[in-house]
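Example 5.3 — TetR/AcrR family transcriptional regulator
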Amino acid sequence: MTTRTRILEAAADLVAKSPNGDISTRAVCEAAQVGAPVLYRQFGDKEGLLSAVVDHGFDAYLATKRLHQPGADPIQDLRDGWDTHVAFALANPNLYRLMNSPLMRKPPASALEAHQILTRDLERAAAQGKLRISPELAAQMVMSANVGVALMLVGRPATFKDPDMSRRVRDAAHAAVFTPEAMYGETAAQDATTAPADTPAAAARLGALVRQSPPKALTTAETTLLSEWLERVSNAPDTTGAPPSSDLEPTPTRDAT
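Solution (predicted structure tokens):
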């Protein structure tokens, strides 16, 4: 075992056993049987050590995602991805809180990789016409909800004790980014009163296809511009239910004089 690995494993063990997830570099040095200069030479400072601890602990979780072969239905893959994310948080509460701590100025590499994997699956959904907004915006929305519910379940179990809480939030978040057809099937979607306009979903799908296979008839600059336009269309606010502009004008008041 290398010195770096010994320090990481000692730090990870202390983080897991800590009442609040905090550790001292002195305790890590004692547990790993190394001097402080060795620790700082390997990791720079305490934040560098903690960031490495997160990546070390999260690596096993990400390894399963790296090896996972995409299924035929990206929606189901995304549901499974949400569930495994929450399961990891519940099994490693201190490590998960550390990973999402605002005190860490630089996000751990594992957090960035998890976001990239999520975006990749959403790209697949968009290419199949199942996404109503761009994959990039959908990834931000889904990840925010996923991390939020995981942190609440980890940090406030006495308050958030509904066993179906994660599933409820997951389905609500997915309903906001996927088309009704993708979520509920063609028949159910025909009766949905909240079905989005066709244009944003079509733009999201075309944008994903353009990114997958850039049109040979366009220059690189033209392809970039097209992708930007499609993303703006797919992410445009839904105004289909807005009243006519005349209805928004203030009602004139009668002169009292």
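Remark. The chain is about 70% helix and 0% strand.
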